[in-house]
Please model this.
Amino acid sequence: MNEGNCIFCRIASGASPARKVYEDEDVFAFHDIHPQAPVHILIIPKKHLASLEETEEADQALLGKLLYVARNIARDFELHRNGYRLVLNTGRQGGQTVFHLHFHLLGGRYLYWPPG
Ligand code: 5GP
Ligand code: ZN
Model:
């Protein structure tokens, strides 16, 4: 899998359209096409990593940056006031359907637990 045939690589490079929320040299964020909450944003590394399971020691700083970007986007969307949820589905049984690592940032409604 590489930039040409991974949908999230295509979105991060601008080759496929998406509603962009944030971008820097390492990270891209955009609205989920099928939102599960009033705010549902996907936060991805520009580097193609298939899942959390595919990461290695050298990716630790990037993983930390994704979390801090998520925190800042949550603030931008005023989610920090009432709370929000970050989700990292990993592998098929974990609910992952797109195999380019992504955090879901969900907020704007009460989020129940367990998620199902
Ligand atoms: P997963 O199930 O892998 O954790 O989440 C994949 C997410 O990507 C789903 O919430 C799905 O709606 C979203 N998604 C899949 N394809 C696209 C797309 O082409 N554009 C956008 N914006 N979201 C997508
Ligand atoms: Zn990719």
